Amino acid sequence: MERQTTPVKQTNWWKWGFIALVAVLLVTTVTVSVKAFTPTKVTSTAKVATGTTNIDVALNKKQVNALADYYVNKSLKNSTMKYRFQVSDQAMLTGSTQVLGASVNFVLLFKPTVLPSGDVQLKAQKLSIGSLPVPISFVMNYIAKNYPLPNWVAMNTADKTMTLHLTAIGNGKKLSFAAKKIDLSGDGNFVFQARIPKN
Questions:
Q1: pLDDT: is 113 or 107 the higher one?
Q2: In a domain, 45, yes or no
Q3: Distance CA 29, CA 19 (A)
Q4: Nearest in space to 132 (alpha carbons), one of 156, 110, 106
Q5: What integer pLDDT is reported at residue 15 of this predicted model?
Q6: Which domain holds residue 59?
Q7: CB burial class (10 A; 0-12, 13-18, 19+) of residue 6?
Q8: Would you say residue 23 lies in a domain?
Q9: Which three-class secondary structure state does DSSP give residue 120?
Q10: I need a labelling partner for 92 at 20 to 30 A (CA). Which of 14, 28, 57, 127 fits?
Q11: How many domains does the chain have?
């Protein structure tokens, strides 16, 4: 009896390697395409601001005086009267007033206090008009009636106070401010909160 030999088929490794390579390339291309064209889901953990965005700003005396000069000069733009608000060891308002028909320079010293609303109240402490004995309320009344003050400054001559309504500067539609801290010692430390309204 004779044995029949069946021919042994040889595996063509190049053929199978090529098919495997094409399959890997095809799967990679499909996966990258699907990932590239699928919309991304983004979840934000940030809280949406309602109303305003607040930024704290710290200033020294020199910077506060520059800011005060800007607002005073802006309010006196078309006026012949001149006055100045400065901060040193105390807050002071300097200018000139009419006493018995003569122009006399004055210095009105204030003690600043931060109100819970973020506004600043200035309490009149001392008035200097040379050696003339003029009541503080007289000069404050004269200032309130004759000097062009910004609409966010309120004078109360009976209490001898001037209130700077910083929170009303922007009228809720523009940048406004709130005082947080007033320290007159040394170079001074004034912390204000800038309130940027949401569009």
A1: 113
A2: no
A3: 15
A4: 106
A5: 83
A6: 52-197
A7: exposed
A8: no
A9: strand
A10: 57
A11: 1
